[in-house]
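note to self: dont lose this again. the chain is below, predicted strucutre after it. 297 aa total, dont forget to put it in the shared folder this time
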Amino acid sequence: MADAPEFLAEVVIAGLMSGVMYSLVALGFVLIYKASGIFNYAQGIMVLFAALNFVGLIDSGLHPILAFVATLAIMIALSMAIERLVLRRLVNQQQIILFMATIGISFFLEGFGEIIWGGNVRPLDVGIPSDVIFLDDILIQEADLFAGVTAAFLVTVLALLFRYTAVGRALRAVADDHQAALSIGIPLNHIWIIVWAVAGFVALVAGIMWGSKLGVQFSISIVALKALPVLILGGFTSIPGAIIGGLIVGAGEKVAEVYWGGLFGGAIEEWFAYILALFFLFFRPQGLFGDKIIERV
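---
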């Protein structure tokens, strides 16, 4: 590493940009978990479902801007359907039941998306720059830089939304105690629709970024699940944790692949993040920024 600091910097920067993409997906998990206490297993599939609809509408002749608006409307309608058909019927049920419900939603969306748009890989070009730039002797991909700036903007907006708006305060109240929030007039169902819709919007942005890089294909949902170790590192309830965790995972797996991958036969970036998260669980199970739960008897 010391012999070629420029190359190390390129590897770390590329990893950080991938980490930002993981953070985008992790944000969707955090939003729903903060609002409802539900670990939404379907978030990875929501990324794929949003990207499939977006690229499918473009291939049907729609302008990308109109396709974005139409896909956002689809994700909002999906949020309302999930609230009406699933969540409303499971209020006050155990969290494991809600978790199993999200697994069912994920399989439904995967199959429904394949029925509508097919299972072929679809290239996606929305004009994201694909050239490279040099910062001194360090090479940076413009697409990675664009994704990083977009993710940083989204994170800032969401953080301000949760901190300073009435919707954000209502969301935090619902997350703390459903019954108490209902007793002071906060409409639980509306909050759930809002937060699932915002998670759908984040999934759409992440799907466009990943789709532009890899093509829209079903393996995107597997890549999106890299958000799980990100959540373990950052904490399930923390937006800053999702960002920091994503950066650690992204940079860590790239450095590990380039410098130590040969010792293990290569491709260790596929599992490095999960091993890192497993070791992290031993020492800080609530994550770097997660809430430590203390139960008094």
